[in-house]
């Protein structure tokens, strides 16, 4: 399995729809301070079911929707899709390609889709359980978080290990 | 349940000893269950000793040494329990150029079993990338993607 | 006592607005007393808006933008209340090369009234140094000083 | 006033005596990870009266004394001296050069000197009050600390301002 593509629209600084096609191997994302690189990390966390706005560096749900700028008006919705190659069927689904989409509106309404079929947040979170991806996994290390491995108390570290076990 | 945890722990423990030495070019490190009697409640302690140095509290290590130790632990877990992909946001920011060298060489190995998506400002990391993605921002504060050509 | 605090606060407040704009090449920033009525207990809030962007919570700023905002506040305080010297340990680590440029130009100004001792891994910072000190470590894990010649 | 020289011996990784002569203007300290650069920051904090071992990245008083290594035996004492140009008499002393020395032994015994005359820690801390240097001042920013300016709660930031006022 690998991450084939991420599609963002209206998510944080990605007002215009952006599609990023990833390769197996090493993919390096580069660019100036404040250009939106870590916002991509946030987008991937979010579409995989992250519920803590604090983890996404926000303070309210609306913070992930493009807030507007001096040149652009705010948007009403944020949407992120992640497309995974599932030919090895690591995810227990028949599909050889899995697409997960998450949408949120300013009203607070949320929508989730698994291969274009509406589903619940719970379905997405359960899909990734025991893969190391998603909630409590090790696969996403945010900016500044690498030191946390060492600062966390031995008991906290234990919890992280149990997730991988 | 406890047996599964212990099994994974043992394997990561052995792996961590190897990865640390490879990233630091020597020295030694340990993962220790601080309560050998009561495994269900035991925490996990990290012991790290860079090459030539005396074993001391983790807090006395330098910024770069701490980052490299944490990276060694992360890579050990990925080696034992590979996830399909990992997203790494500037995890090597504190490393000097000599350490970036060892880091990128090891990252290449990890990418053999785990797709790596890494956000970086470091040339050394860009040089081992199979694909490069540029993110830029318009005057309108909107992010855009720039295709960056890789000249090897 | 309260008057002295208010006086200093006002002066740093005005300075911060200027320094932020110079470091970011635009945008705007404020220092706000969050309890205008009860000055003795009022906290100090920071508002920062990089050029072209909408005003949002500090937490949404990028790593580099947060570092530059903090540096702007530090420099503002040093401009108003110069201490004889300052020791800065890798404060510019998160800045990209374009921001390092503006940072170093401003650091040169600050050094006019405050001696600067800065630990750095960044070429841009080394280039504006009046003196360079190399620290290296022997195999015996003992630190030593290396005189580094400045070739301008 | 400016910092003319720092002398370290037995302090953390500085087993051998090192003298660093600083210039007015910008002094850049460079070197590989773990070579001892931040230990110099710790040494300057310490000689100016820092009492929190945690701020010095240690967990016990002895942590600032060279602990030995594979090539060297531990030392019994750590000593740091800081020499300041005081021609502008910013420090209320007649001397145009001020030397502060701090020593600690494994026994926990501490010694303090002001221009070679024994004094108390309190004398050193009081000397620097209202200069912005020393305890609660802004003049020393440790590695990783720059984000603290933004994370600290508004009330904490207030305390910092009062120190500069
Ligand atoms: N909801 C939103 N609407 C518009 N812009 C937003 C929103 N949320 C965050 N941003 C902007 O995104 C920018 C931060 O982007 P990001 O953290 O991805 O930067 P970065 O490329 O990782 O930079 P660095 O190299 O400094 O880490 C901030 O300037 C912030 O103002
Ligand atoms: N009491 C001590 N005795 C011997 N060595 C010590 C002692 N205290 C700290 N050290 C060593 O000093 C080193 C840390 O030095 P320091 O933090 O100054 O590095 P640095 O040059 O700032 O590196 P970086 O660029 O990674 O920040 C550690 O390797 C640590 O083992
Ligand atoms: Mg970032
Ligand atoms: Mg350091």
List the helices and strands and how they pair.
The complex is a heterotetramer, with two copies of chain A (165 residues) and two copies of chain B (152 residues).
Chain A: E1 2-9, E2 18-21, E3 26-30, H1 37-47, E4 77-85, E5 97-105, E6 110-114, E7 117-119, H2 121-127, E8 140-141, H3 148-151, H4 154-164
Antiparallel strand pairs in A: 1-2, 1-4, 4-5, 5-6, 6-7
Chain B: H1 2-24, E1 28-33, E2 44-49, H2 63-80, E3 85-89, H3 97-110, E4 115-119, H4 123-127, E5 131-137, E6 143-147
Parallel strand pairs in B: 3-4
Antiparallel strand pairs in B: 1-2, 5-6
Bound molecules: adenosine-5'-triphosphate (2 copies) and magnesium ion (2 copies).
Please tell me the overall pLDDT of chain A. Answer: 92
The shape of chain A is: globular
* Helical residues, percent of chain A: 10-25%
Net shape of chain B: globular
| Helix/sheet category of chain B | alpha+beta
Strand content of chain B: 15-25%
Rg for CA atoms of chain B: 18 Å
Q: What does this entry look like structurally?
A:
The complex is a heterotetramer, with two copies of chain A (165 residues) and two copies of chain B (152 residues). Chain A is α+β, with helices and mostly antiparallel strands and 165 residues long. Chain A has four helices and eight strands; from the N terminus they run βββαββββαβαα. Chain A has helices spanning 37-47, 121-127, 148-151, 154-164, and strands spanning 2-9, 18-21, 26-30, 77-85, 97-105, 110-114, 117-119, 140-141. Chain A has a six-stranded antiparallel sheet with strand order 2-1-4-5-6-7. In chain A, a hairpin with a 2-residue loop joins strand 6 and strand 7 (117-119). The longest helix of chain A has 11 residues, at 37-47. The relative contact order of chain A is 0.15. By secondary structure, chain B is α+β, with helices and mostly antiparallel strands. Chain B is built from four helices and six strands; from the N terminus they run H-E-E-H-E-H-E-H-E-E. Chain B has helices spanning 2-24, 63-80, 97-110, 123-127, and strands at 28-33, 44-49, 85-89, 115-119, 131-137, 143-147. In chain B, the strands form three sheets. Chain B has a two-stranded antiparallel sheet. In chain B, strands 3-4 form a two-stranded parallel sheet. Chain B has a two-stranded antiparallel sheet with strand order 5-6. In chain B, strand 5 (131-137) and strand 6 (143-147) form a beta hairpin. Chain B starts with a helix and ends in a 5-residue tail after the last strand. At the A-B interface, strand 2, strand 3, helix 1, strand 8 and helix 3 of A face helix 1, strand 2, helix 2, strand 3 and strand 4 of B. Strand 5 of chain C pairs parallel with strand 3 (26-30) of chain D.
């Amino acid at each position: 399995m690998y991450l084939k593509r991420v599609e963002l629209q209206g998510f944080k600084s990605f007002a215009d729809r952006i599609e990023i096609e990833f390769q197996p191997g090493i993919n390096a994302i580069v660019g100036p301070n404040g250009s939106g690189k870590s916002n991509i990390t946030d987008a991937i966390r979010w579409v995989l079911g992250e519920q803590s706005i604090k983890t996404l560096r926000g303070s309210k749900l609306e913070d992930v929707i493009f807030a507007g700028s001096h040149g652009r008006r705010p948007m009403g919705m944020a949407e992120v899709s992640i497309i995974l190659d599932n030919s090895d069927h690591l995810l227990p689904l028949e599909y050889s390609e899995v697409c997960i989409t998450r949408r949120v509106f300013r009203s607070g309404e949320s929508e989730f889709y698994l291969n274009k079929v509406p589903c619940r947040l719970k379905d997405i979170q359960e899909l990734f359980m025991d893969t190391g991806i998603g909630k409590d996994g090790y696969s996403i290390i945010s900016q500044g978080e690498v030191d946390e491995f060492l600062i966390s108390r031995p008991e906290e570290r234990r919890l992280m290990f149990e997730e991988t076990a | 349940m406890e047996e599964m945890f212990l099994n994974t722990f043992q394997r990561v423990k052995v792996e961590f000893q190897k990865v640390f030495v490879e990233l630091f070019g020597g020295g030694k490190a340990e993962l220790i269950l601080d309560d050998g009697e009561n495994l269900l409640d035991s925490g996990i302690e990290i012991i790290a000793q860079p090459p030539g140095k005396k074993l001391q509290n983790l807090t006395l290590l330098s910024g770069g040494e701490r980052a490299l130790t944490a990276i060694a632990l992360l890579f050990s877990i990925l080696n034992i329990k590979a996830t399909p992909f990992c997203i790494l946001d500037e995890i090597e920011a504190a490393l000097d150029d000599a350490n970036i060298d060892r880091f990128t060489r090891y990252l290449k190995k990890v990418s053999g079993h785990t797709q790596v998506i890494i956000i970086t400002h470091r040339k050394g990391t860009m040089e081992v990338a199979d694909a490069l993605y540029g993110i830029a921002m318009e005057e309108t504060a909107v992010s855009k993607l720039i295709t960056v050509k890789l000249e090897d």
